[in-house]
Specification:
The structure is a single chain. By secondary structure, this protein is an all-alpha fold. It has one domain: c-terminal domain of poly(a) binding protein. It is about 80% helix and about 0% strand. The N and C termini lie far apart (about 95 Å).
Amino acid sequence: MARVKWAVASRRRRKRLHQKTKGYREARRTQLRKAKETLMRALAYRTRDRKVRKREFRSLWIIRLNAAARERGLTYSRLMAAFRAADIKLDRKQLSELAINDPAAFDQLVTQARLVTSGRGQ
C-alpha cells in the first residue's frame, strides 16, 4: 500500500486562505495562523453587520421623519399614527425620501392624514 501525502491538499487549502486575506496588512495576510484568525473574525463581523446596517438605516429614516414632522407641527409618533389612520401604506424609507426630495407631496400626505384624524375626533 502506498503512503498518502497531503502536500497538494494543504497547499491548496493555504492558497485559498491567502486569497481570502488578500488586502490585509502585514502578518494578517502572510502568517497562516494570524490570517486564519483575522478571516474568521471578518466573516463573523460581516454576518453581524448585515443586521446592524438594517437597524441603522431604519433609525436614520425615523430621525428624518421626526424632523419633517416637527417642521409641520407634529411629532413622529403622531405622524405615523395619522398615516395609519388615513390608511397611507408607505414605509419609513419611502416617506423619508419624499420628505427630503419632494416636500410638496409629503405636505399633501400630511394634510390628508390630518383631515382623516380630525374627522375621527368629531
